[in-house]
Amino acid sequence: MKTARLIFAGLLLAGLSGCDAGGDFSDLQAYMDEVRARPKGAIEPLPKFQPYEAFTYSAASLRSPFQPPVKIDLASQKKGSKDIKPDETRVKQFLEGFNIETFVMVGTLSNEAGMFALVQGAGGVHRVKVGDYLGRNHGRIVAINEGQIDVVEIVPDGEGGWLERPRSLTLKERS
Hints:
single chain; 175 residues; alpha+beta; SH3 type barrels; 3-stranded antiparallel β-sheet; 7 strands; elongated
């Protein structure tokens, strides 16, 4: 047992003798001298980043180039009339400042004064009656019933005349 202790102590001394404190550290000393010689306080400025610029795809409403063009028969196209035209002298109503596509019929009200429709859009729910105007294309409400609002719009035909275009807003029930 005494011999095992002596062998263990000998191996321990042999292992510790490899850790010589008087080794050559010239490369480490050269690197430390180089670091100390650098100018102090010279920090590179942060790179300038370009702000993000949003891109709006403006051709979304155009015909897809991968679809064949639509052939329009100009002879069968409806011609406008010089007799039909919007009344530019009347005072515009509030709901004429918005596209008719933004409105949804959400209900009806009726009393002794008549039937009213409730349309949602333009930031809230609005009560309209027959004769009111709706949308940017001079859309006049001509009929209101339980399930829909009938509107007649006056739109230009592209050749100096005007066309009456019927539209309907149907009741949107909760889903």
